[in-house]
Design a protein that fits this description.
It contains 20 helices and 18 strands. It is α/β, with parallel strands linked by helices. The strands form three sheets. Strands 11, 12, 13, 14, 15, 16, 17 and 18 form an eight-stranded mixed β-sheet that branches. The protein is globular.
Length: about 650
């Protein structure tokens, strides 16, 4: 039983967003059916963004397969960009019809979405009318919400007060950054939006708020465990009598129940939980593991650990110190002719086939460039597979520069330029005339793909990877020509399956970084996991270890790390040089998130911070460390924790 003393909002923790969203959809469907049976209307408040999409997908399924009718449902949406026309692909009018309304039997006159075209001198009156219309409909029976990284709900940015009603607001920088992926760049994101206010939201009879992924964890913790404050508008939900927060395990990462579960419930002290607790205690007290005393344990809520283990502090310290120490290896492919009992990797075969999956064409060197260099130098057969082209990460200015270079090359060497000139002229003219986030023509997308492809090839050539071992998969889910991606399908899995079956790797490395703000890493990882599930019956898979790395956005918790590959100062510089080959991602990459540092800076500082953490626990000091956890595709669990993987 978990104590909820630390939690000021009821939390519904589920394994993943799909499971939680089905539960939310069931709540909505039950309410609609009850009201339909009484010939009474249902008034829904709806949100946009990525969080509620699975809810809408499940409601559509219920409509088509179970006859759930929306004919007596009226909806009010939370917000809309301003200015914004209904026809704009980025409008929430378009989003709602594309993701829900076009697929159910709701009456058009029952759909209410803030109007992004109202003249500025009329917007105040329009907003008052929107609130009045909600009241006249009987109020919102249930309201769906998401939460922004800065704690906003709707577009109520930090500083919004609890008395605010529907109004026009100015978007914070972090909100614009988070939404820039939908617009093709920060410069195209509107500065303002129309949003329901906090008071409007709190008047809803029931509220279901959803948050998925590690990048929402800090906002979730602030909303749930801290006092109400205008700095975190979502914290006002603590005042509501019937609110439920649905989160996955990643979004719960910073809650007390996750960080220090022994403080909120009775624990079964497994090996992984003991390691987590001792590492936490060492870092909290800023004492090396071997210096911790029984008094340290007793005064910090860990007396039960020693009591249940029947051990002294020294015994537990030695146990955990050895576990942490054994994760460190300079031989990521296994050390030949060595006792591998306590090593992360097997010594046999001495020369392994290693397959690195990279979601974008630079994640490999950013996340594990030092390990790639080490594997190549130690004689392993290293393959790198780029799962997507990454073309959406190339700015128009980068494409234009390369197109002009092609024009110059053709003229310099007197190449037949008839067709080339026509193609480059069309693409340059499109770029020069572009004023909104319209989709790129197919040929321009191809140019941007080639830019990323050749940058990746140059980086891997520097690392010593053969051209024949570089694979460009261009998974179909990504290559849509639009910023909205498809769902994964068997065509994606077949490409992954065929490559794995061809190489028959002893090691697979994949990106486990779910904090990627664009969701591509998450989708790519799901693709790899599904492929492994389909292939796990093959004989060659019995000899395969799967290692997960994290990218530019975060690092594994130190208590979960199973393999830590140290780097010397020279190797850090070599990794930096490999990253520098990705010129289109330097000096103002399109999608860096809120962090203004370049990717090489993030990687170096994160790797150095990991090394410092190891040192603070009492281990040797290294310049940098790249970290990995191991995934067991037979049990679908992380080996270090026994937890289901995502």
């Amino acid at each position: 039983m978990i104590s909820t003393d630390h939690e000021r909002i009821p939390v519904c923790l589920r394994k993943n967003d799909i499971e939680a969203c089905k539960e939310v959809a069931d709540r909505i469907a039950t309410l609609i059916r009850e009201r339909n049976a009484k010939s009474e209307p249902t008034i829904l408040g709806l949100a946009t963004g990525s969080s509620p999409v699975p809810v809408y997908e499940e409601l559509i399924r219920m409509h088509k397969e179970e006859g759930l009718s929306f004919a007596n449902v009226t909806t009010f949406n939370l917000d809309e960009y301003y200015p914004m026309t209904r026809e704009d692909l980025q409008s929430y009018w378009y989003y709602m019809h594309d993701n829900l309304f076009n697929h159910i039997d709701i009456k058009p006159e029952n759909v209410n979405i803030p109007d992004g075209t109202v003249p500025m001198d009329e917007i105040h009156g329009w907003c008052k009318g929107y609130d009045k219309k909600i009241d006249e409909a009987g109020g919102l029976d249930i309201l769906l919400l998401g939460i922004g990284r800065n704690g906003h709900i709707g577009f109520n940015e930090p500083g919004s007060n609890e008395h605010s009603k529907t109004r026009i607001i100015t978007l914070e920088h972090v909100t614009k950054v988070d939404n820039s992926r939908f617009f093709g760049g920060l410069q195209y994101v509107p500065r303002r939006a129309v949003t329901m206010g906090i008071k409007t939201i709190l008047k809803a009879k029931k509220i279901a708020i959803m948050a998925w992924g590690i990048n929402k964890a800090d906002a979730v913790r602030s909303m749930v465990e801290e006092k109400i404050t205008e700095r975190v508008p979502a914290s006002f939900l603590q005042k509501h009598d019937d609110v439920s927060l649905y989160i996955d395990e990643s979004a719960a990462a910073l809650l007390t129940r996750t960080v220090t579960p022994w403080l909120v419930r009775d624990c079964k002290w497994t090996e992984s939980l003991i390691k987590k607790a001792v590492v936490w205690l060492s870092l909290k007290l800023q004492k090396p593991i071997l210096m911790l005393t029984e008094n340290d344990y007793n005064m910090n809520g860990l007396n039960e650990l020693l009591a249940q283990q029947g051990s002294t502090a020294y015994d537990v310290n030695i146990l955990v110190f050895n576990q942490v120490q054994h994760t460190i290896t300079g031989w990521p492919g296994g050390k030949p002719n060595a006792d591998d009992t306590q090593r992360p990797e097997r010594k046999e075969p001495a020369k392994k086939r290693c397959l690195v999956f990279s979601p974008h064409p630079d994640d490999d060197v950013i996340s594990m460039g030092g390990t790639v260099l080490r594997l190549v130098r130690q004689g392993h057969e290293v393959h790198v597979a780029y799962q997507t082209s990454g073309s959406f990460g190339v700015g128009d200015d980068q494409a234009r520069r390369n197109l002009k270079m092609i024009e110059g090359f053709n003229r310099e060497f007197d190449v037949d330029i008839t067709k080339s000139d026509k193609l480059t002229e069309e693409m340059i003219n499109f770029i020069d005339a572009k004023v909104t986030a319209e989709a790129n023509p197919v040929n321009l997308q191809k140019v941007k793909s080639l830019i990323r492809q050749e940058e990746a090839r140059a980086a891997l050539h520097y690392c010593g990877v053969k051209d024949s071992n570089i694979h460009y998969l261009r998974l179909p889910f990504y290559e849509t020509g639009a910023r909205t991606k498809r769902a994964l399908s068997q065509s994606d899995f077949d490409l992954l399956n065929n490559l794995i079956s061809e190489i028959k790797p002893h090691q697979i490395y994949a990106a486990g970084d779910l904090a990627d703000p664009h969701g591509t890493h998450r989708t790519c990882l799901t693709g790899v996991f599904t492929s492994l599930d389909q292939l796990k019956g093959e004989d060659f898979m019995k000899d395969c270890y799967v290692w997960l790395y994290k990218g530019a956005w975060q690092e594994w918790p130190i208590d979960e790390i199973m393999m830590a590959v140290p780097m010397s100062p020279d190797e850090v510089n070599q990794k930096r040089k490999a990253i520098f080959y990705h010129q289109s991602q330097k000096d103002g990459a399109l999608f860096k998130g809120e962090d203004d540092r370049e990717f090489w800076q993030r990687a170096e500082q994160r790797n150095a911070a990991t090394a410092d953490l190891y040192n603070s626990l009492g281990l040797a000091q290294y310049a940098a460390i790249e970290a990995f956890v191991r995934y067991d595709f037979y049990t679908r669990e992380l080996v270090s924790t026994g937890h289901k993987a995502f």
